Amino acid sequence: MERLTTSFQGGNFIKFSTKIPKFNEQSHSVLMKEGWKPLKEPKSLTNAALLSVPFMVINALLSIGIIYCYSSFSMQRFSFIKGNSIILTIDLGVVLVILLMVIIHELFHLIFIPNFLKSKDTIIGLTCFGAFVHTEQIITKARFMFISAAPFLFLSILFPLILAIFGFLTGKILVFILFNALGASVDILGFFLVFVQVPKNAIIKSNGTRTYWKMGAE
Predict the structure, then answer these.
(1) Model confidence over 151-162: pLDDT tens digits?
(2) Which of 85, 97, 136, 203 could form an SS bridge with 121, CB 3.0 to 4.6 Å?
(3) Is the pTM of this model over 0.90?
């Protein structure tokens, strides 16, 4: 895989790529010899997207529930709903804000990766499908789950909660909150798969699009 690498004198630093990291068969063999166990997970992004559909619904309902409990929520507050009609308008400003939210979403993954700025095993990237963050650091189960869920927790749960309490929610903000909640569905799928398959004190490592675990030091 071709990568553009940002490096500075005195050490290795985070990398930038325009390609999603791929599964490496040689790394797989090494990991298996070292006692790592593959996570049972979708082998393609298409399958992951399909399996994440129920989590889209759950995420949206959780965000709407938070908003409903702390503000006078109604469907008419969405900027694309006028009376009994749904009006979709797309302009450059909306597109730019969506792109900004995608970047912010990925930054919430990135900042919780240990020592991410100087991690030679961590990649930030941009493809035609959107931005991504990937790390092949060895991390704990708890840290992996928090990294996976962070954008949803902060942007679609805590953020709307704070805005609702202080009365700052608007229709457009609601749209982007739900957009983030829907987009986080694959993250929450990964969270769920690790939660149900990986023991409490295990450690986790990625090999491209595949995930492995083994028991860590007690």
Answers:
(1) 999 999 999 888
(2) 136
(3) no
Q: Which of 150, 87, 105, 147 is nearest to 122 (CA)?
A: 147
User: Which DSSP letter does residue 21 get?
Assistant: P
CA torsion, ordered 75, 81, 82, 84, to nearest 10 deg: -70
What residue spans define the domains of the chain? 4-215
Nearest of 90, 70, 47 to residue 179 by alpha carbon: 90
Name the residue with tokens 């409990």.
69
Is 35 buried (19+), middle (13-18) or exposed (0-12) by CB count in 10 A? exposed
Displacement of CA 149 from its chain's centroid (Å): 7
Angle, helices 92-110 vs 141-152, to 10°: value is: 160
Residue 74 token pair: 């109604």
